[in-house]
Amino acid sequence: MMMTKKTISNLLKGFALVGVLFMISSCEPRTEKIKLGYVLWDSEIASTHVVAAVIEDRLGEEVSLTAVDAGPMWMGVARGDFDAIVAAWLPTTHEAYLDQTADDIINLGPNLEGARLGWVVPSYVPVNSIDELNEYAEEFNEQIIGIDPGAGLMAASEKVMEDYELDNFRLVSGSDAAMTAALQRAIEREEWIVVTGWTPHWKFAAFDLKYLEDPKLSLGEEEHIATIVHPNLQTKAPEVFAFLDNFYWTPDDMAEVMMLIEDDMEPMDAARQWIAENPEKVNAWLQ
Predict the structure, then answer these.
(1) Looking at domain 34-114+223-285, does it have CATH number 3.30.70.270?
(2) Distance between CA atoms of 157 and 119, rounded to whole angstroms?
């Protein structure tokens, strides 16, 4: 069939329009959210919201946040339900979870060093070591006040109970918030109390506390908090992957965000305030 110049011109215009539409559609922002999981520890609420705020405000990606227990958090990132977590306590607290998921995740290494687990008492309590506790079970109401039952710290605390033969005590599960509320009530009444604790945590700035010595090292030694990602993130959102690989801050940085939240600021607002006050550190994460 012979085509006229007008027909050819119209076809070319049509091809050009298709090309423009293709270019526009290929430049549209990805609508799939970056999915972050975290545990409801004050430390991890702080770090996860800082990361989420950077991803949204500086990288232009939407973020979905989901709070879960430690086990589902690790399994979620291994399955791809989460793209990343910045709440992995290693090498001891979450060791079992890492062993279960190692083939399905990428460990980007520490995002904070100098973390610690332990059992904590108010400084006025004249007990300095876990191996002294059996002598004072009645004074402590025969309780160790813990956090959520799925936490690695609770599994480690069960080991403490066995290692030190604390048969006169029971480990009480609850939550981070319930633990700190019980601690505050006891301090206001100058009562004796033992709680599961970790650093960084705002309670060490708010109260005069001390760790009990752990001569058997049942709770391990110094830990770090690591960033764990699903392998697909590197192709799904390479800028986010690069940022998470660079994300690193100090316990003092984290404590500043935790204290803002403790002073009744919303976690995302606290994160954004800290980001605004620390531009050089944040810019380094994004290089």
Answers:
(1) no
(2) 8
